[in-house]
Amino acid sequence: MAVPWTFSLLCGLLAATLAEATLSPPAVLNLGPEVIKEKLTQKLEDHNVTTILQQLPLLSAMHDNSAWGVPLLGNLVNSILKYIIWLRVTSASILQLQVQPSPYYQEMMVRIPVNMVAGLNTPLIKTIVEFHMESEAHALIRVEKSNSIPSRLVLSDCSSSDSSLRIRLLHRLSFLVNSLAKKIMNLLMPALPQLVKTELCPVIKAAFDDMFADFLRLARAVPIPLSPGGLEFEPLSLIIEENFIQLDLGAKVLDSKGRVTAKFNNSEMPLTVPALGNKAFCFAVRQDVVNAVVAALLPSEKLVIPLHYVLPDVARELKSSLEMISKQAANRLDGTQIVKIVTQDVPYLDLTPPSTTAAQQIVMDISASEKDLHPLFTVGIETKSKVQFYSEGDRLMFNFNGISSDRIQLMNSDIGIFNPELLKNVITMILTAELLPNQNSKLRTGIPVSIMKALGYETASWSSAKDTLLLTPDSNFL
């Protein structure tokens, strides 16, 4: 009897695991190899990597047998080095970094080419003997997971292989000097990889740690102001996929006092994260988070419109339309007729391409005059607008283009039952003239999103995928 029970338990655990695997984060920040190598290069410069290279102790490394591991007798080394007054790196640079996939899961490799020129001063000749040296550091980056702290990126290994080392004499001189230079190069060959590991790799690790800290600070940026309130993100987890880093982010919406009004974690709500392709980064926000932002910007409200004073042409159109329903009701309208618009629900954005739409439920009261305690009638309206997303500097801008009254339902009436679709044109005119500008005015300032400039890009574009709002750069690295 235990076998069926065990089988049921295993099936339940498998189902739970599969369900968990389909959960998607509220937002994702994908960082491609272009961002990684540019940011790491900048951090290496901040850590004065060229100065470190120019201070490499070449002579000490050549003296130290353990640095190169070739069993040469000490007197032989000394017989060569006694002809050297000084030997040092005179110029150095880091060439274009390469970020490559690793054959191992949750790991990537960064190749850091180093270009150096070393000068040798010897009493055998008055001019400086110059060597051109090329080497390459290989740094492995992997995801480190722990039960006590969130997963993080670590630089797990840094080394330099002999196969990446090239040393050549820049100028051929006398036979004696060329022979000495060849012996010096033979001593440098085993010494340089060890110098890269002991002198350069600590700088690479420090630069990488700073870069990763910057990525985390970017994810934990100060709340994005929504006026009122704000939106903030926090890292949930991260993965390495091929040669890009994916940060999964949680999201919180805050009120004007900093209190959390909505919190989003992994859920079954889908999030479409497209392949980066040749894009340097992609910031994807789930549809429910976008709608929470819209709700913060456009809370439910009531508009009271003295129609005759504000929109006299629409007031005449309303009276003309009412005459087709009830002339008696139309005659009750005077110069103080009032229209009340109540947005019962905040606009709901559907991000499904090819065009994003915003749906909303509206209640509209039409009163014959400002003194009437009860409206002539009340209608419920389901509206729809097209939504346009675009960027201005570092701000996400969006507005509603047009508004349609897709469905109108009579809720209350003091003039008898009638088909409210007969008033569709005038109702749409009122919503277009009053509700639409009112909502767009609250969206006019946009939402500051500093990700693109923090990553070094001047402009970026917003677009929608199914259930997702996307930000991708459309310019080269600054």
UniProtKB/TrEMBL annotation:
Signal peptide limits: 1-21
Lipid-binding serum glycoprotein N-terminal domain mapped to chain residues: 36-258
SMART domains for this protein: BPI1
Organism domain of life: Eukaryota
Keywords: Signal
GO molecular function, one term: lipid binding
InterPro entries according to UniProt: Bactericidal_perm-incr_a/b_dom, Bpifb1, Lipid-bd_serum_glycop_C, Lipid-bd_serum_glycop_N
GO biological process: innate immune response in mucosa; negative regulation of toll-like receptor 4 signaling pathway
Entry-linked Pfam families: LBP_BPI_CETP, LBP_BPI_CETP_C
One GO cellular component term noted in the UniProt record for this chain: extracellular exosome
Protein name: BPI fold-containing family B member 1 isoform X1
